[in-house]
Amino acid sequence: MSYTNRGFITVTVLLTAAAPLLAPVGLRAQAPSTPAKAAQSTSSAPAEKGERWLHVRANCTDGKGGTVRVNVPLEMAEKVLPAVNHDRLHNGKVRIDSSDVNDVDLFALMDAIRTAKDGEYVTVQSKENDVRVAKEGNHLIVHVLDKGGSKKSQVEVKVPMKVIEALLSAGKDELDLVAALHALGAQGDTELVSVKDSENTVKVWLDSKSVAE
Amino acid sequence: MMLLAKAALGIGGTLVLAGAYTFREGVIRVDVDESRAGGSHIHMWVPAAVVPMTMHFVPKHHLKDAAEQAREFLPVVHALFKELKKFPETDFVEVKDDNEHVQIRTRAGKLQIDVDSPDENVHLLVPLSTLDDVVDELEASAPGV
User: For residue A107, what pLDDT is reported?
Assistant: First the structure.
């Protein structure tokens, strides 16, 4: 073998060895050995089957016309939340005391609602506000219409009872956020919160798409 | 002549391998443009693999100080980056109004943060694996570890 050929072969071997190293991260991520998850979580494609996403969309139509879009995979929230240990939030649970809820026994109240039949529990109609609290099809529904203000706001909250049960599962003085998120993940596509007034709309909802439409 | 060729081949091969290793993790890109008079204009492309290597040369007490200050957030950041790796092509946050546009997203396994405002434009692109390495290094440097 001539010196020239030997040199050529050495260079070829070196470059061949370096080729996988030179491959960009993205290419390596799509290698057959890795699951297809990477490709499926693209912003345009639907999320992986079973993946649940919490979306927040806020639109403001005042002078500046702002928009806020937040897309959070529930799985990520479930994993990250327990790592937050700050103030009253520890291990995915929030510590509350009775003074936080004006001495109302939140747990007894929610337990009463949980075991009660579907129906309308609170209805307030006044010149300034309409308030309605109801239980419908295993969902707690809160509807507030503020007629007094100049903006005439409307708030609708719809929370699955399973989520409330999970939230209260930690015991008397704590709210289990991680358990609530886990329970939320088991729900179908649903709109959780909707706030509307003449200038702003806020929507929080759950679905299996990684990006808000 | 042949000796020279062999030496050149050796150096060339080493450079190729060193370059391949350095750039295998991608690059960190930082662009900052301040619009005000005398504002900064920073444009940096740094091989991501350099960062963890460089951290080994940072004096331990500096790393310890940094780790001490970030101690509360390190577990959160660690968990976050670990989870972000599972979503390599995702738009997480977008805030937009008449003047400003902020986007936080992942692209090809990199965290991409873009801020466009009248005062400044900031564009940051960092491989998630690099961020994870930095957090690992800080956690290892935290007092009591």
Answer: 78
- If you count residue pairs, one on A and one on B, with CB atoms under 8 Å apart, how many are there? 121
What's the whole-model pTM score? 0.75
Q: How far apart are CA A168 and CA A110, in angstroms?
A: 8
- Across the interface, do A85 and B75 touch by the CB < 8 Å criterion? yes
| Tokens 């609708």, residue located | A156
In chain A, the residue whose alpha carbon lies closest to the alpha carbon of B75 is A83
Distance from CA of A197 to the nearest CA of B (A): 18
Provide the residue count of chain A: 213
CB contact under 8 A, B76 and A80: yes
For position A9, what pLDDT does the model report? 52
**ipTM attached to this prediction:** 0.79
As beta bridge partners, residue B90 has B106
Minimum Cα–Cα distance from B84: chain A residue: A76
Task: For chain A, give every domain's residue range.
Answer: 1-34, 47-207
CA B31 to chain A, closest CA, distance in angstroms equals: 21
